[in-house]
């Protein structure tokens, strides 16, 4: 058999990599730093021994299951060089319990600086407590890139981590003008709990754009963030969010949960916190996620579920569930100094009893700084908002500066208490409503449209811009949507419940069934109309239903 010379060389290289790969074992209970550390029977005792090594692709670090390491956090520097295809791996041995890293004051649990090609699994990163975290601002996992050449360092994976009692749970940061940063970072099946400021945060050089971002293709999957209440020493910047994705071109947040965060700061300026959100990013998708019981500083806005915020382009929130949050269930928000929001799409989501404080609502748009940028191509379609008397309205839009161009198609807006459905204070000529259903349980209803108010859909159609008309014909509905478990709802705590939810399903005879307004797909936001509904069911051929469910 003839062997190709190139294949032979490749085989020799791979064999050399395999032979060169090393294994090290560490146990705080059974180890000794005088040991070789290369066998499970002769482990080292301290993580400091690992930090002294220059690791390479294929090397494996094994930490004893259940042991607690107090001497140091793990530190990876540029001379630790794994690759995405052949990473350095850190995992546990000798059991199934996570190994615990509780570093001294002033150290991150894991610090990765200007390098990548590392996979870390099954660790509990335990900080020294909120007070210490507040003083030192150290994170459970800290990724930092300040290379000057614009490179994207590829291949970082974090699997099955538990992160508690740090300042930030996991941070992914960069700030060089060359837009150097990280690529293909995956955080999966992790839990971040009781960190002081925020749960998981990425950020990059600002301002970014659709073409220039520090990071590329960040993914956060099947991860839960809770009880990150916010830094009480902060007087201006917000904290207390679950997951924030910024500074990236390409991002996915999927099957994640944020709950019981926020409400612990002295921030009086707003701007957050929010459960799961993106800002200053391009092509981020948030889908199949759940946010509940999010709070904000007493007397201050925000504390909502989901948000596409300032400077975001081509971003989508779809098939998510938000309930019992103080702020907006779903928000599109511009702030002063950010690039314009362009092509933001919110579709096939449910907001149930959001807007628990300060007159906020289920769906919201805000452009409140006098010099904030104008925004365009903002679309909300096939969402359901159910709110009681606590909310200010089902939809609220606030403008102090340039208007946002926004459209609302085939949504359902329901009040089980209260009367105000739509609350838009100005720039109504830039806002489109078509094919939506409106209903209040008590019968009385209100649409605020600039300086006027209307008490019926028929009256509102005659307002400036002729809302709920299409090609000269009346569209939209003011009727009981006939939904299952309308007031009981479903207090989900896991994203796996969403695909099986029956709360809010249209009953037989519902005016929502087969009643969606047929629109050109180009009007329905990012890329095209979603091919799946709230429960991730494939949409059948038209006619489709109004709202997030397709029967």
From TrEMBL:
SUPFAM superfamilies cross-referenced by the UniProt entry: Pectin lyase-like (SSF51126)
Domain Right handed beta helix: 184-370
Gene3D superfamilies: Single-stranded right-handed beta-helix, Pectin lyase-like
Keywords: Signal
Signal peptide start and end residues: 1-20
InterPro entries, alphabetized: Beta_helix (IPR039448), PbH1 (IPR006626), Pectin_lyas_fold (IPR012334), Pectin_lyase_fold/virulence (IPR011050)
Domain of life, source organism: Bacteria
Protein name: Right handed beta helix domain-containing protein
UniProt source species: Lacunisphaera limnophila
């Amino acid at each position: 058999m003839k062997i190709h010379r190139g294949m032979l060389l490749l085989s020799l290289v791979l064999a050399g990599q395999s032979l060169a790969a090393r294994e090290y074992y560490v146990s705080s209970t059974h180890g000794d730093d005088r040991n070789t550390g290369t066998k499970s029977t002769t482990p080292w005792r301290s993580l400091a021994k690992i930090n002294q090594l220059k690791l390479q692709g294929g090397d494996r670090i094994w930490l004893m299951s259940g042991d607690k390491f107090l001497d140091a956090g793990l530190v990876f520097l540029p001379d630790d060089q794994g690759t995405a295809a052949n990473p350095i791996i850190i995992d546990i041995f000798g059991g199934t319990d996570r190994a615990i890293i509780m570093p001294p004051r002033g150290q991150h649990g894991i610090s990765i600086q200007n390098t990548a090609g590392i996979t870390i699994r099954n660790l509990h990163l335990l900080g020294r407590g909120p007070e210490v975290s507040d003083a030192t601002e150290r994170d459970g996992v800290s990724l930092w890139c300040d290379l000057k050449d614009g490179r994207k360092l590829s291949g970082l994976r974090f699997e099955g981590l538990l992160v508690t009692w740090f300042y930030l749970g996991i941070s992914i940061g960069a700030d060089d003008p060359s837009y150097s940063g990280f690529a293909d970072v995956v955080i999966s099946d992790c839990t971040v709990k009781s960190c002081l400021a925020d749960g998981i945060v990425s950020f990059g050089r600002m301002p970014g754009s659709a073409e220039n971002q520090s990071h590329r293709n960040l993914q956060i999957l099947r991860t839960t963030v809770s009880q990150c209440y916010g830094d009480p020493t902060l007087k201006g910047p917000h904290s207390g969010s679950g997951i924030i994705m910024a500074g990236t071109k390409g991002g996915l947040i999927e099957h994640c949960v944020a709950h019981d965060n926020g409400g612990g700061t002295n921030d009086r300026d707003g701007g957050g916190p929010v459960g799961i959100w993106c800002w200053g990013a391009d092509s981020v998708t948030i889908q199949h996620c759940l946010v509940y019981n999010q709070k904000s500083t007493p007397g201050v806005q925000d504390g909502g579920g989901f948000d596409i915020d300032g400077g975001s382009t081509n971003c989508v929130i779809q098939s998510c569930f938000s309930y019992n949050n103080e702020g907006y269930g779903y928000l599109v928000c511009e702030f002063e100094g950010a690039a314009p929001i362009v092509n933001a799409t919110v579709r096939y989501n449910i907001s149930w009893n959001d807007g628990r404080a300060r007159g906020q609502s289920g769906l919201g748009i805000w452009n409140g700084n006098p010099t904030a940028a104008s925004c365009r191509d903002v679309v909300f379609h096939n969402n359901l908002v159910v709110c009681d008397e606590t909310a200010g309205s089902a939809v609220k839009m606030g403008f102090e500066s340039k208007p946002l161009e926004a459209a609302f198609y085939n949504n359902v807006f329901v009040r089980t208490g209260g009367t105000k459905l739509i609350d838009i204070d100005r720039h109504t000529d830039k806002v489109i409503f078509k094919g939506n259903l409106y209903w209040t349980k008590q019968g009385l209803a209100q649409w605020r449209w600039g300086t006027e108010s209307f008490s019926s859909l028929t009256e509102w159609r005659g307002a400036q811009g002729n809302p709920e008309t299409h090609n000269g014909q009346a569209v939209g509905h003011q009727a009981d949507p006939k939904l299952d478990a309308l007031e009981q709802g479903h207090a989900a705590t896991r994203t796996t419940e969403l695909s099986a939810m029956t709360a809010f399903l249209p009953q037989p005879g519902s005016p929502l069934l087969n009643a969606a307004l047929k629109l050109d797909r180009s009007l329905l936001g990012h890329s095209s109309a979603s091919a799946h509904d709230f429960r991730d069911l494939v949409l059948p051929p038209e006619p489709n239903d109004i709202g997030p469910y397709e029967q």
